[in-house]
Amino acid sequence: MRISTANSYDRTIDVLQKRQSELSKLQSQLATGKRVQKASDDPVSATLSETARNRLARTEADLRSLEASRASLQQAESGLAESGELIQQVRDLLVAAGNGAYGPNEREDIARQLEGLRERLIGVANLKDNAGRTLFGGLGGASTPFVDTYPPPAGEVQFNGQRGQTAAGDRSLPQTLDGHAIWMEIPRGNGSFVVNFPTPPAVNAGSVRSDLGEVVDSSLATGDPYRIDFASGAGGIEYTITNTTTGLPVTGHQNVPYEAGKSVTFDGLRIQLDGSPAPGDQLLVSPVSSANPTDIFEVVKNAIDTLRKPDNAVRTHELGRAMTELDAGLDKVLLARGRAGEWLNRADSLEKLMGDRSADYEVEISRLEDMDLVKGISDFQTKQTGLEAALKAYAQVQRLSLFSVING
């Protein structure tokens, strides 16, 4: 018979070691549940898995950023809601201030309430989120974007932030809003022109005033300033409208008898005059530009100053203008609040989309790396049985020797 050689012995040992290594690898895979534990286990799956992991990490980072944006937007939306309520309170007080029975004391009380509401408006504009970032500072800048220089003579609010705001993307939303666009870009008067009283030392002696007016035909509008002069005529008070750029009276509006409550139309503009003018009184019609807007804080300040003026006609005229500008400011706030609400709705959609995407990446990683436990257990048992059989066979072969044959 043939006796096992050293070569067959070594080969048997190699086979046993290989089976032990395979069994050990299966034990490790079963313990971790991972089929791919290192790149050499399956280079293709390991590469694809790493790519999926990187995408999952980016998506999770986007989700964290989205959650931060959502928290900031929720606080900004709440601040805009409070701002709208404060502007409405200001308007209600101005309506009350128009009560003809109110005297200086009542108007002063309203003025003081308006000062408090104005301070609260500035406080809302300077709100910060939980991270200490200003909610309405635009693209950055000062930690306090709205700085008040009130009371007079300065009496204005300066915006020290940076105008503009980050655009919404496929995976991100703004975390701050442009406060300048919300509160600092209110059109003056009717947005095209304003009617003012002469500046001191010239003062009207009568009670003439006007409404805010409107542009009825933009093709005829010159964009020039005008002056309305009132003088004594043969039949009473007359008015003349002069284009102060050309220095010429407007055709058809020279020495015209004045009628209270009558609308006057000239060069595409319409103004309703009211009250009782005195000879020498004037009204000034000045064009306004979008490049020179007012702001909500100046509107309230002007209303406060107006309430402290003794002239009833001036108060009535300027409070009417203040309420129109307040309405325009409230529209700006409501528009910004609506935009913030849209972004919050979009945040919900993005969160669901990125959550689904993360789940897909996790499934892909599991498919590439994880082990089929049922198949793994079956393979382990098969290899374990094969190793046990090989060990028994090896034990029998190991006992064979030439002496056993001779003795047998």
UniProtKB/TrEMBL annotation:
Signal peptide: none
Subcellular location: Bacterial flagellum; Secreted
Keyword Coiled coil included in the entry's annotation: yes
Organism domain of life: Bacteria
Taxonomy of the source species: Bacteria, Pseudomonadati, Pseudomonadota, Betaproteobacteria, Burkholderiales
Species of the source: Hydrogenophaga bisanensis
Keyword list, A-Z: Bacterial flagellum, Cell projection, Cilium, Coiled coil, Flagellum
Family in the record: Belongs to the bacterial flagellin family.
Segments forming a coiled coil: 49-76
Xref: SUPFAM superfamilies: Phase 1 flagellin (SSF64518)
Primary location: other
Keyword Lyase carried by entry: no
Protein name: Flagellar hook-associated protein FlgL
Domain Flagellin N-terminal: 3-138
